[in-house]
Design goal:
single chain, alpha/beta, TIM Barrel, 3-stranded parallel beta sheet, 11 helices, 43% helix, globular, binds 3-phosphoglyceric acid
């Protein structure tokens, strides 16, 4: 059974947003995150190795829910699905991406930043949205403001969230989980400091919601 977007967002309070520079980091990183209790992983399509990294992670660490991030074009959504991604995240939503999402075999978490974008996404059939970039969009205050007029929507705020600010976001009823890069510091990936990543993941996995 393929997980729904709701199940993916429920599987972890924090979705690590990963920028992978080297393919050899992929599998040890996925293992380090899962060892810390985080099994949802967003691999951004920002580096040439990203799609192959998704494929390797899925193969070697089948319990991980590996998705593709930074999907901005229909072709990237299709490529992510072919690589074995079980979900896709976009920083924004365009008509071509809406159309591609309808035909995709994996759930899409679309990015929005304004009430109009959230309404357009809702009307296109999405109930779970990424608020991006969450910090510049207004952070916790923005999410509180959106809850009144748009009660049916749940968010995964991402962008500018830290280990320190994540709990404030996770307390909000319209926040399903948060995304962030603090669990996977580039220096730790480059040096292979997997115990550090596991420790950061364990702390993030313990964060309470609601
Ligand atoms: C990104 O664009 O890389 C993600 O939104 C993560 O942002 P962050 O580095 O501020 O957590």
């Amino acid at each position: 059974m393929k997980p729904t977007v709701e199940e993916i967002l429920a599987a972890s309070p924090v979705i690590p947003v990963v920028v992978l520079a080297r393919l050899e980091e992929a599998v040890p990183l996925a293992r380090a995150l899962v060892a810390g209790g985080i099994r949802v992983i967003e691999v951004t399509l920002r580096t040439p190795v990203a799609l192959e990294a998704i494929r390797l992670m899925r193969e070697a660490v089948p319990e991980a829910l590996v998705g593709a991030g930074t999907v901005t074009r229909p072709g990237e959504l299709a490529a992510a699905e072919r690589a074995g991604a079980v979900f896709a995240v976009t920083p924004g939503l365009t008509p071509p991406l809406v159309e591609a999402s309808r035909h995709a075999g994996i759930p899409v978490l679309p990015g929005v930043m304004t009430p109009s974008e959230a309404i357009a996404a809702r009307d296109a059939g999405f109930s779970h949205l990424k608020l991006f970039p969450a910090g510049p969009a207004g952070g916790v205050a923005m999410l509180k403001a959106l809850a009144g007029p748009l009660p049916g929507l749940r968010f995964c705020p991402t962008g500018g969230i830290t280990a320190e600010s994540a709990p404030d976001y996770l307390r909000l009823p319209n926040v399903a989980c948060v995304g962030g890069s603090w669990i996977t510091p580039p220096a730790a990936l480059a040096s292979g400091d997997w115990p550090l990543v596991t420790g950061l993941a364990a702390a993030a996995a313990r964060l309470a919601r609601g």
